Amino acid sequence: METRLLDLLVCPLCKGPLDHWRPPHQERQELVCHADRLAFPVRDGIPVMLEGEARSIGNEPPPPPVFPKPSAPDAA
Ligand SMILES: [Zn+2]
Known about the structure:
Elements: H1 2-8, E1 19-21, E2 29-33, E3 38-43, E4 46-47, E5 55-56
Antiparallel strand pairs: 1-2, 2-3, 3-4, 3-5
The protein binds zinc ion.
The site of zinc ion has 7 residues, from loops.
C-alpha cells in the first residue's frame, strides 16, 4: 500500500514523476525529483512533500538502483 501511495505522488513544484530512493543499507527513504534536483524525505513511511523540507541533490551522484539488476553476461 505504501508503495502504491508513493507511486501516485508527483513533485509539488513541477508535477513531474518522483523517483523513490530506498537505499538498502539505510532506513532513510526519499522521493526525488530529477527535474528540480530535490529529494523529499519520507518519514515513518509518510512522504513530506514540502519544498522547505527537501534537500538539494544538485551535485550528488545517483544512488544505486532500488532493485538489483539481473546479472548481465560477462562479455569481457
Ligand atoms: Zn519537480
